[in-house]
Amino acid sequence: MTAGISNEIADVVVIGGGVTGLSTALALAQSGVRNVVVLERSAVGSGGTGKSSGVVRCHYGVKSLAAMAWRSLPILRDAPDILGESAGFHETGYLVGVGENNLGALAANVAMQQSVGIDVEIIDHHQAQELWPKARLDDFAGFAYEPRAGYGDGHQTAMAFAGAARSLGVRIRQQISVASLLVEGGRVAGVTLSDGGTINAPEVVVASGVWSKALLGPLGIELAIRAQRAPILLVEPGEELGAVPVLSDLVSLQYVRMEGTASLLVGNSDHSDPDWADPDDYMNHADDDELLGAAAKFEHRFPGLGGAKVASTYAGCYDVTPDYNPVISGTPYEGLWVCAGFSGHGYKISPAVGRLMADLVLDGKSGDPDIDPEDFRLERFADNRLLLSPHPYVGAGSMR
């Protein structure tokens, strides 16, 4: 054997040190699987997790996603007690506003959300204006409000998952990438590493976001994921706003949340013209056109904030599937699993994702009657049975 190259054995290998991979490792360890190895090519939380805007909401049109978000919220909120470290969660509430053409969808989605226990209600203009005094709300036709929602911090959450997982014996190896997946016959046998070593394992979970595609391709597994660049603006509002909720503006197609105590984080909700990107080489800031477009939306929604100014910008990449929903699924190879393609949902549902993934690995089924793993199966794209909301929002359905 070449010096420095090792051959190891694990019960489960998880590829990817973001929130979904680490949550999976933690859930496996909590279920009694002790020999779990997480492999991260860079540092914990350094991929899509680190660029997440961290919005925590349960407002989905797909029942399984709504239930996953609701199951995840208390773990993110109470992370210091549950995980041993904070997830950076701020319970600000979440306000979504829609136009006249989406009132029916709003009512139907809220009814479904309430059916799985989510604390959400339809509110009127007066109530919405009390929540966001500085916002112009006259062009909204209706609102829904989740008082327990808010936002967290992707990197802090990843570190909290990592710490909790390590306390149960999970090994997290950073700065090591996977060169290839090992298969024997019809099942997975482990992974080969970039340093030439191997880890033999009967179960492998590929949870490496948009980079999952390259790992699965050589095995003939077509994973329909692309990287969609998403610019974010950090705005100084110019005046004190008080405690305002996350605002999901489905008329202007933007979202706004507090960043700390005095700044705003502003993102784009218009995915009609995606900016497909190389996740390893893309523009990491908003360009002039993006700034102008975002400024026009912001000024329309907040005409009273005349002193607002952009402090800085950055960009991340969503790992997007054709239906903007994740793949949490087995593959044609026994023991090989995919947990990727979260399309912007991953942070807010990550605790439930880990639980579902662990349930599938250990039992082959979901342990939650409101979360149907059939929704997230890999084959749905080839079968042309996309996971879509029964009540999509016109013009803003992609991530709802």
Summarize the structure.
By secondary structure, the chain is α/β, with parallel strands linked by helices. It has a domain at 92-147 and 228-318: D-Amino Acid Oxidase, subunit A, domain 2 (D-Amino Acid Oxidase, Chain A, domain 2), CATH 3.30.9.10.
What would your notes on this structure say?
The chain is an alpha/beta fold. The protein has ten helices and 20 strands. The protein has a domain at 92-147 and 228-318: D-Amino Acid Oxidase, subunit A, domain 2 (D-Amino Acid Oxidase, Chain A, domain 2), CATH 3.30.9.10. Helix 1 (19-30) runs parallel beside helix 7 and helix 1 (19-30) runs parallel beside helix 10 (346-363). The longest helix has 18 residues, at 346-363. It is globular, with a radius of gyration of 21 Å. It starts with 6 loop residues before the first strand and ends in a 37-residue tail after the last helix.
SSE blueprint and pairings:
Layout: E1 7-9, E2 12-15, H1 19-30, E3 36-40, H2 48-51, E4 55-56, H3 63-77, H4 79-82, E5 94-98, H5 103-115, E6 121-123, H6 125-131, E7 142-146, E8 150-151, H7 154-167, E9 171-174, E10 178-184, E11 187-193, E12 198-200, E13 203-206, H8 212-216, E14 226-236, E15 246-249, E16 254-259, E17 263-268, H9 288-301, E18 309-320, E19 327-330, E20 336-340, H10 346-363
Parallel strand pairs: 1-12, 2-3, 2-13, 3-9, 5-15, 13-20
Antiparallel strand pairs: 4-8, 5-7, 6-7, 10-11, 11-12, 14-17, 14-18, 15-16, 16-17, 19-20
